[in-house]
Amino acid sequence: VSALSRPVIAEAVAEVALELGADAVVHGCTGKGNDQLRFELAFKAKYPGVKVIAPLRDRVWTRDAEIAYAAERGIPVEAKAESPYSVDDNLFGRAIEAGILEDPWTAPPEEAFLLTADPAEAPASTDVVVSFEEGLPIAIDGEELPLYALVGVMNERAGAYGIGRIDMIENRAVGIKSRELYEAPAALALIAAHRALEELVLTKGELEAKRELEPKWAKLVYDGGWFAPVRGAYDAFFTTTQELVTGDVRLSLQPGAAVVTGRRSEHALYSESLASYGIGETFPHDAAEGFIGITALETELVAERKQVQVA
Fold this sequence. Notes:
Layout: H1 2-20, E1 24-26, H2 35-46, E2 51-53, H3 55-58, H4 63-72, E3 86-90, E4 93-97, E5 126-133, E6 136-140, E7 143-144, H5 147-159, E8 165-171, E9 177-183, H6 185-201, H7 204-222, H8 229-241, E10 247-254, E11 257-264, H9 272-275, H10 286-295, H11 297-310
Parallel strand pairs: 1-2
Antiparallel strand pairs: 3-4, 4-9, 5-6, 5-10, 6-7, 8-9, 10-11
């Protein structure tokens, strides 16, 4: 969530600083978090040589002290002494930390969540069909929507089932572990649907390569590398793989889970006649024996070598 928004903010700040001829920029990140790295790498990428001022890093503040400082000066902030969470949200989700969440044994209270309902109180399961075009979601239940609006609709529909709650321990770039809560109902539901469509359309090689690069892309961006040249290289590959990822995926929205129950595409590599065990199937069984023989050749050679060594 935060890793996606920081480059956008930093780029806008750098653009304004360049327009004004400013020789310094300021951010309000602490010395413990990842955001200082994300902001400052972005500043350096977009405004080389700019001086960065970080007052909250230079002077260590407690959360309570920050809340009191803001209250004394009439500065409106969402955090309160009784609910001192640090919250970051954008269209794609919400991140929550601090307060009682700093104890990893403490269960998250419902008051910490905003986008997702308690899964135990979810309504009856319902289906939703997500349509994709070249890898991007374009419609819900046949209604075409701009991407931002579609994400908003999915946040509401999936969030009503408590889908998208994540409670995890992260390894921060500065070397410490932190407990983070996330709410990302639309993100998790759409990712599940998108992966299902990819499995139907992409070749085995494309899927293996993409699944290998996805966590590399995520870690790169998490660590502040949005403007690194390698991200552009990753994106170029991902874009190529999405050219035929067009079709529909049906999701069953259930308490705490978005379950794929169907997928279809004109570009599907799945062939029912080849995969079927029923009458009319067309799989070339005669070719299987030769395929197995060639595949097992190396295994047999290794076994024979062991026999010779034992003898």
